[in-house]
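User: Structure tokens for this complex, please. No commentary.
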Amino acid sequence: MAGSTPLQKRELEDDNENSSSMRTAETMLRLLPMGLCVVALVIMLKNQQTNDYGSITYSDLGTFRYLVHANGICAGYSLLSAIVAVVPRPITMSRAWTFFLLDQILTYAILAAGAVSTEVVYLAYKGDTAVTWSESCGSFGSFCHKATASVSITFIVSLCYAALSLLSSYRLFSKFDAPVGSYNNKGGIEIANY
Amino acid sequence: MAGSTPLQKRELEDDNENSSSMRTAETMLRLLPMGLCVVALVIMLKNQQTNDYGSITYSDLGTFRYLVHANGICAGYSLLSAIVAVVPRPITMSRAWTFFLLDQILTYAILAAGAVSTEVVYLAYKGDTAVTWSESCGSFGSFCHKATASVSITFIVSLCYAALSLLSSYRLFSKFDAPVGSYNNKGGIEIANY
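Assistant:
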């Protein structure tokens, strides 16, 4: 930046220090859901049970297929975004917007996957007599337990993503105000000079 | 503010003008989901069908009861928050945080309600042979149509709330930076004076 004052330089240094610790925190916060997504994915993928009543696998239920896809996409995105986040470079507006929008979409997608799967697990445990849906977990207890575990992990991922959404919206909207801030600063100097 | 410069005054006026149009936009954006929530709520509350196969009401399904509650809470919160938003007064940090957190929670709650209800409507239309859940919409077509309408409206509410979350996070995080901005400004004056 041409003609930057000593204060502006000090600010830039402070910003760099802040953004360094923030970058580490963000990378951790992106690697954690990646791990959790992979665990939830593997538990669900291996979820099948065969007994005297018949056999059931996760792919018999469209909802669980969606859960697997959502977790897979989430794990991939978490890994990619962690790699992008860990590289120290200036945050451009377009990068902040991309992170913000993708984080928001992923948060909603993974929350929706968790919610619909919870509904199916709930129906599998309790059934619904009004619409003649019988409970199935009496016959397929192990299947239901694993599904519950996978869904619970998905909800922890949702929490991580809610935090990431917060972080990326903070990054974007504090960035948004940066030009106004430097305009104020210039303005302040001008007034003092006049 | 004691000793404010003309430029700072002009900025304050600009801020006031911006916040006035933003306030109107926000109030509209809060009244819209209120109306939609009430419509979705009424459609679901009146949703019952009796025919030769038996009778079904929304309250037979726990999910639809949750949808009704979520829509009711959402309508109430939308109205209250619209009233708070329409009154012109300085936005305090605690108010910005309250709006931000409640908007986020409502967005997730209404999205989850929409998602689980979609799952139930889907199962009611298609059934799931693997877990012996039969489709019910062949027998209760009118019930399913009304439920679909209510769920669709709930998704539009989710979109409104996603926008509101965006707005309140923008408000909060641009507010967050305000103290840094005025610090810059002061700093600018000091440097110019030295």
